[in-house]
Specification:
The structure holds two protein chains of two kinds. Chain A is α/β, with parallel strands linked by helices. Chain A folds into three domains: 4-209; 215-304, Elongation Factor Tu (Ef-tu), domain 3, CATH 2.40.30; 316-435, 3-Layer(aba) Sandwich (Rossmann fold), CATH 3.40.50.80. Helix content of chain A is 49%, strand content 18%. In chain A, helix 1 (4-30) packs antiparallel against helix 2, helix 6 (126-147) packs antiparallel against helix 8 and helix 8 runs antiparallel to helix 10. The longest helix of chain A has 29 residues, at 79-107. Chain B is an alpha+beta fold. Chain B has helices at 2-24, 28-46, 55-59, 90-94, 102-107, 118-125, 151-159, 177-182, 212-215, 223-228, 233-241, 253-257, 273-278; strands at residues 49-51, 63-64, 67-72, 75-78, 99-100, 128-131, 138-140, 173-174, 184-185, 188-193, 196-199, 243-246, 250-251. In chain B, helix 2 (28-46) runs parallel beside helix 11 (233-241). Chain B is globular, with a radius of gyration of 20 Å. The chains are: A alpha/beta, B alpha+beta.
Amino acid sequence: MINKKSFISYFSLLIVILLIIVPIFILYSNIPISQAFYPWSALFTTLGKLTALIGLSAFAFSLLLASRFVWLDKLFYGLPKVLNIHRYLGTISFTLIILHPIFLAFRLLPLSSQAPLSIFLYWTEISFVFGYLSIIIFMFLIVMTFFWRLRYERLKSLHSLLAVPLMLGGMHAILIDSDIKRMEALAWYYMILISTSVLLYLARLFLIEYGIKTKSFLVESVTNPSKNTVKIILKPLKKTIACQPGQFVFVSFPDIKKGEEHPFSVAHILPDGRLAIIAKILGDYTARLSTLTAGSLAKLDGPYGNFGDRANKNSHQVWIAGGIGITPFIAMAKSYVSCPTEASQVNIFYVVSSEDDLAEADELRKMEASCPNFKLTTYVSKQEGRFDIAKLSSFVRDFRTCDFFICGPAGMVEYFVTALRKENISKNHINIEAFKLL
Amino acid sequence: MNKIVIIFVFIFWTALCFFYANSLFKDDDAITKNLNNTNQLENTNDSGTITKSTLALELSNHNNQNDCWLLISNKIYNVTEYIYSHPGGANEITKYCGQDATRAFATMDKTRPKDHSNTAYSLLEKYYIGEATSISASVNTNSNNPTNSNKNSVNNNQNTTSPEPTTPIPVTYTLTTALVAQHNSSADCWATVGSNVYNVTSYISSHPGGSSNITKYCGADIAAAFTAQGHSANASNILASYKIGTIGSTVSPDTLNSTPPPSTNNNIGRGDDDEEEDDD
């Protein structure tokens, strides 16, 4: 079943895809397509052109989607979806841009044995140099972000440098002798597209840097609900953020490090616009969260996501939380004004590796005690073994009548999605929120 | 997606290594093969040919996108096949079909003139048909009265590089090593590969390896140097198109003045269909 919101997201995706391939139509409105694929040199020239045109427009849209504006979240039904499209477009543009010079070199293969290499060696032509630099930096940054184990924040700032190869690629496309230079429509298309995406991207960096896009909160209290977790209650300085249960915000604490922001699901939406987040003490940064004191400043950007949107429907709900993935479920559970009915009963599985990670189970137990149709099952995998689909089925009688909500580490989320799909559960009944690079 | 990324990074560097390795590759076989082809060419030439009409006269007939010849620096090119591969767009070529495109090619037709790259120049050579003054239809020399061979008049002809069609004077002429040695300047450059004689004057400026690497061999034998340099099959084809005859053979001054039409050489190949119809 497609609801209105996901219809809008499919429509937006369609528009993006059409805009990406528009250059092909502009190109072949001026050139007869019949001449494009024969002979050898024409075929490879065509491939070289197409990879460049589509690679560049997909690259620009990929950056545009990374600009993380709230309206993108609305258009594509959730920031995680936006970032998924961003990843796909990024990969597509990377492969196409890599292939572009290879095709153009192959075009020259019948000419002489030296000719193909020669197109990689025009260091005296500025338009070529832009192209070389673009591809080298693109490759370097992508390989770095995918394969170099870096700290989250370093990784993110390195990844944000990808705007540089896009600009260099744009310069290359506009300066070099090509259809873009000759066809005004193409030149305008790329100039507008690339400058828009770069400007939006820079605007976002600028807005966050100067706190225009963020809202200021003060730390009210810092507590440890369990040994390995830290809970922070934030009080709005002026205006709060209107959060729905299941949504997340980007938070930065200038006292820890200015400008370094991390995504957190909102665990409690409290009266007076106060919000609470819970973090697992994992690395360097989260360890320092415990050192925050009441009155410290916090900058919040959001809200994003739609994890809780489909909850509270009239169906049997299975919520699976991995570790700190419990946070959106706490907010979702607390949003029940009255207890869930028999038909819309909630089964929540809270899976942690050790007791030290078990945060706020009491809050959920309180709800379990007062509501007969709300069941909490805590599961410590160190003692009871891995929580898998077989274990799940011992608690849930019929998967087919259930809506699944899964939040946790990427590996666990992927495991359950695959396992449930094997049980013939449709995608529409599986809602996920994974911890990934956002 | 990590896998895709690593695969394409791998493809990129593999391709680059391939292009590099390919550029080092010396295909001796190809050279031998093409030199053999030039020997076949010699047989055709031995029958003797003279100019009936020049390529320059024919030029204006090939003036559309389906049949497009260009005159660039006194040479004729059939670029029909290339039109839609042109990075600068098809229109930039088609508007010059059947015309002199020398200035347009050297300036890219821009208010701020910009020359084409070396790759573009060598790409152009692929479509070479012949000199503007070279023949497009042939008759047997023997049917004409051979006149006195006069070295000076031949040399004068050599220096004439007018793009206008010229009416040739039918003469015949015997090639000797002594004669080749006289054509030893960049303005008038002959060379031999074994017994084959080439007039490469008009190619000097187009040589990808630089003009000086040709001019130092003007009037001499280039077999060793040409092979040692590891020229491509295509280079051999280009060289073959400049052949004027063999030592001891009799040729007309017009063939000396210019390269023979590539229609006699199968390997030049591209786009000389018109020529083949005219030559029997």
